[in-house]
Amino acid sequence: MRSHYCGQLNETMVDQTVTLCGWVHRRRDHGGVIFLDMRDRDGIAQVVVDPDTAEAFANADRARSEYVLRISGRVRLRPEGTQNPNMPTGLIEVLAKDVEVLNTAATPPFQLDEHGKVGEEVRLKYRYIDLRRPEMIDKLRLRSRISHSVRAYLEGQGFLDIETPVLTRATPEGARDYLVPSRTHPGSFFALPQSPQLFKQLLMVSGFDRYYQIAKCFRDEDLRADRQPEFTQIDLEASFVEEEDIMAITESMVRNLFKEVLEVELPEFPRMPYAEAMQRFGSDKPDLRIPLELTDVDDLMKDVDFKVFSGPANADDGRVAALKVKGGASLSRKEIDEYTKFVGIYGARGLAWIKVNERAKGLEGLQSPIVKFMEGVVEQLLDRVGAEDGDIIFFGADKTRIVNEALGALRVRLGEDLELYTAEWAPLWVVDFPMFEDDGSARLQALHHPFTAPSCDVETLKANPAEALSRAYDMVLNGTELGGGSIRIHDQAMQQTVLEVLGIDEEEAREKFGFLLDALQYGAPPHGGLAFGLDRLVMLMSGARTIREVIAFPKTQSAACLMTDAPGEVSAEQLKELNIRLRQKAKAETAGE
């Protein structure tokens, strides 16, 4: 129906006759001449309709915002003084000969060029309107280019694109499963996959050697800016590899992606052990663009007359850390109070601070409600953090986990608020993760998942599981975990030992993933892999603030789709077919009786 997309027109096409199809982005009537800005997925072109073409003029006259039109006309240069150098098609316009209204449109719920004044709920409810915006089209176009680049790279490296099941069984992978009742097996349920983890390992056992998939995954967990109940992974696995092999393949893939799509040469990918990342930044995904670090001061605080500090400093699971902000003494008390509320989100009971106004004056040159309790250690403290005039020092004192989370988050918040970024892109590999973590429950939990290989042998793991490290690695970019992976357990004895450490007995293990344990008996090769979050990757590369901006039809933070009104109720007949009776309905029926 058309010869060109609107955004394809340029000055080299002057005097050519073109046919365009699209939507009316804007209509203007200038003294009997009608101007239509026609929009499609490639851009906007200005169309001029004059009264000499009576039928075309009449159709243009009745066209309104978001009407669907088909126009034919001649490309010409815009008159001098009316050109728009900020617009890709700003040097030309189309003098219409024919204008056909293909469909009318109701008044849209918001103007596409005024979406910033509209709440996200309205935009998500009318997502098909929101997606017409050039900004949204650009983000989804970028997503398509990223997927294409990734596929081309992995295919070139010998990876095969293999699909894995979406209806599977529940396995312990760190989050709640979405369950699907089976009609043909009453009382039994499928689970939607949190990842293709077990299936890609089985593909390695099957001898496919190199697998990849851009896979849909599902997790029923609390949402935030970089989480959705359904999300997309770039998933890959390879056999006969070590950590360095997987890291080299995927780092090269990401470098190639940024160069091909954004024309960006990423800097060096440094390596950092997990323990160092937590100590210096309070996070296992630190944003290295921010030049702020945590400094341990536990030893200085053990004997101070301030129990808020001395208590954690003397506790086995406590930490006292300082965060110096260069030039931060200019922060107002109101701003400090806001940061105090902020760290409270992470469990911190307060936020102690010291402003260094004139260090040469000793205690008199410091401003703080706590400095009087630390007279004997103030100079050592200032030396350790490298404090100078004009700086502020924030403190965290509590259980190690709370201090890390609170000061780690404060570090990121300060970097954003004070615009402290020193680079545009800061990639990082985090390595040497603990094999297990103690979350306060009766037994240890796998930090990644139960199929991650430890970096020690079976006997060492049995003797001291809490100290074991894993063969896991995470790729981090600008404080966001792009992807995580590991070398997997390919030995049945090691897999059984890990399950025993996790408190999963043989019966439970057979029930949940006996098929994997069986497969490990039949010549499983050494293998490992990594999974990238495609949504997060597109979010970073497009500059979006949330992954909802780079998913065509996302859910809200309450895991609902406002456009389709999902999740929704189903009919009694459907429930009966699935042998399901709702508890609330059962109670109502009982009350009615």
Automatic annotation (TrEMBL):
UniProt-listed InterPro entries: Aa-tRNA-synt_II, aa-tRNA-synth_II, aa-tRNA-synth_II/BPL/LPL, Asp-tRNA-ligase_1, Asp-tRNA-ligase_1_N, Asp/Asn-tRNA-synth_IIb, AspRS_core, GAD-like_sf
Coiled coil: none
Pfam families in the cross-refs: GAD, tRNA-synt_2, tRNA_anti-codon
Record-annotated site: Important for tRNA non-discrimination: H30, G81
Subcellular location per the Swiss-Prot or TrEMBL entry: Cytoplasm
Catalysed reactions, semicolon-separated: tRNA(Asx) + L-aspartate + ATP = L-aspartyl-tRNA(Asx) + AMP + diphosphate
An example molecular function term from Gene Ontology annotations: nucleic acid binding
GO biological process terms, semicolon-separated: aspartyl-tRNA aminoacylation
Location of the region described as Aspartate in the Swiss-Prot/TrEMBL record: 197-200
EC primary class: ligase
GO CC, alphabetical: cytoplasm
EC number: 6.1.1.23
Residue ranges constituting the Aminoacyl-transfer RNA synthetases class-II family profile domain according to the UniProt record: 140-554
Keywords from the UniProt entry: Aminoacyl-tRNA synthetase, ATP-binding, Cytoplasm, Ligase, Nucleotide-binding, Protein biosynthesis
Binding site for L-aspartate: E173, R219, H448, R488
Binding-site residues for ATP, renumbered to this chain: R219, D220, E221, Q228, E481, G533, L534, D535, R536
Family as reported in the entry's similarity comment: Belongs to the class-II aminoacyl-tRNA synthetase family. Type 1 subfamily.
Subunit structure as annotated in this protein's UniProt entry: Homodimer.
Task performed by this protein: Aspartyl-tRNA synthetase with relaxed tRNA specificity since it is able to aspartylate not only its cognate tRNA(Asp) but also tRNA(Asn). Reaction proceeds in two steps: L-aspartate is first activated by ATP to form Asp-AMP and then transferred to the acceptor end of tRNA(Asp/Asn).
Protein name stated in the entry: Aspartate--tRNA(Asp/Asn) ligase
High-level lineage: Bacteria, Pseudomonadati, Pseudomonadota, Gammaproteobacteria, Oceanospirillales
